[in-house]
Amino acid sequence: MSRVDRSRTSASQDAVTVDLSAVIVTASPDGPLVLVRSQDGAAPLALPAGPLEPQHRTLEAGLRNWVEELTGYNLGYVEQLYSFGDANRHASARGQTSRSLSIGYIALVRETRPKQSSDISWASWYRFFPWEDMRSGDEPGVMTRIRESIAGWIAEAPHDARQDRESRSTNAFGKSGDRWNEELVLERYELLYEIGLVPEAHRDGAACWAPREAAIVEAESLQSDHRRILATGISRLRGKIKYRPVVFELMPPRFTFLQLQRTVEALAGIELHKPNFRRLVENQGLVEETGSVSTNTGGRPARLLRFRRDILRERPTIGVGLPSARSQKG
Amino acid sequence: MSRVDRSRTSASQDAVTVDLSAVIVTASPDGPLVLVRSQDGAAPLALPAGPLEPQHRTLEAGLRNWVEELTGYNLGYVEQLYSFGDANRHASARGQTSRSLSIGYIALVRETRPKQSSDISWASWYRFFPWEDMRSGDEPGVMTRIRESIAGWIAEAPHDARQDRESRSTNAFGKSGDRWNEELVLERYELLYEIGLVPEAHRDGAACWAPREAAIVEAESLQSDHRRILATGISRLRGKIKYRPVVFELMPPRFTFLQLQRTVEALAGIELHKPNFRRLVENQGLVEETGSVSTNTGGRPARLLRFRRDILRERPTIGVGLPSARSQKG
DNA sequence: TCAAAAGTGTTATCCTTACACCCATGT
DNA sequence: ACATGGGTGTAAGGATAACACTTTTGA
Description:
Two copies of one chain form a homodimer.
Chain A: E1 16-28, E2 31-37, E3 49-51, H1 59-71, E4 77-84, E5 99-108, E6 120-124, H2 142-155, H3 159-173, H4 185-195, H5 199-203, H6 226-240, H7 257-268, H8 274-283, E7 287-294, E8 302-307, H9 311-314
Helix pairs in contact in A: 2-3, 3-4, 4-6
Chain A binds a DNA duplex (27 and 27 nucleotides) through helix 8.
């Protein structure tokens, strides 16, 4: 038996516990919401997680199972994000290396009704990533302060690291003049983590440039690596809406163009050009008219649309209009 | 403690063994090669897999570790693909549900030298997916035979399932007149599996339309679900080369435009337009001239190029030219 | 001279993006 | 009247994809 076969001798493996973490997203008039679990006392919020159980035929079935059982929500779209498995993910006090493996999922639900269960609630995902909401430019100024901190980090770089820090920061946050790249959520979070602008970095004992006090206070943190998982989910969703009709999993049965646009804008964290958005969606054949109109628009009544569900069979690889990444200047 | 917290009571979990499966790819003049492990006797080939061990700090570190230790290959690009965890992935004879979780990775290496180890070797990935090589159209006719089988599957559909089968097949394999979508490797494999045109389906005991004898013989199978993992890897790589400069991980230090084009074509399984490919790569600033030329081209000598490594810092989100998916007709 | 591959020029077409403008309703 | 949002027209600019053609080598 060759060494490659070691995996079959399970005696050599350490104890592994597997849980399924879920970024469960819905859209409200106030923006994208994510399901969070509040823990005892003043501990940070957490993403809901459930165990992988023997009777689950597949991983996704396991996830759907415990989420629906627990929340009653019917998961529309479900997608595996990533498997996280740092050995020190939960540094155990007893020094034993019991590895905790976490498989992250993103799921979309339509219902926003609050749960009876007291420790589960919806929270805007921008509570945890305020710098990702660029719909009104840098309105609260978080971004400006981040850029200042990054500028300091670059300025104080040792000579050989300077170029690297410079390019890493412009890759994640862009040069002024570039179009804001809304997809690089994870890259930005990881840069902030590494610089030490995020409390998790200090909690994990990483060697950071920034002092613990500099950790951004405007943003709320999450338990263990859940903010990283959430960042992964936002990134994936922001990418996906461009080439798959997933936004409609978050829309009511009938909606107007502007409602659809606002939802996309809320997810992407950027503003879109109204006439072009309308035409793009129209030309793709993603929607059809219901015949009725909505009068409570505040202006001229708007035609009510419905998602053309058969498009999923005709052309599943189609999405909703966002400025293409290509339009970024070099 | 709420029910969401069940994951922490690890007593309720079943035994889980985790291994890291790897799709290790290199490029040769004859096409894309993948590392396979031959087992005892006439058993099907397998992807190499290694166990997740306690001392590995991260999952990717674990993978790099055992691959480099075992093969000596230096993994350039490594990316997690997907976590597979069907309960019946290895149906155990003793009826106990020991779940085997497998985390798939794709890795690119430059070296093609064969390994001394006798049970490891390189194989063209088109041995396992002959229908994915459309560089010369449907030269061996595999595709034609598949289309015939699918046509039968559609024709014999019960009335209510017919539309569904029709659209699923055109989504995966396209209508005649459409551009071949090289990215849908997994979708095609899964459709063939479901129809029963692939031996794994019968081995797994799935209820299939096609009889066991119809399972495509021109294609070689792999152990357990390894062909699905390979399909996932090919899909991901074919997608990735379009917006990340990963092809260069497979190129020698100096190469000509045509060599680069042939490599991309081999990976994507389609032919490209030479003048346009050249200009696209040129304009993206992905390569620079070395000054020297290659004379053994069979024609006019070609300028030798090198990959501009600094592009990874300047603009990591850039790739090599392939016909855009958008150019597909609706 | 011819085959084979390296390169260059050019154009039709489509898509994106932006700008300008009119329409219908409530206050 | 005017604010607010709904909705249409159009044109500049850029990228794609196809076609035609010249250049340089070896046999």
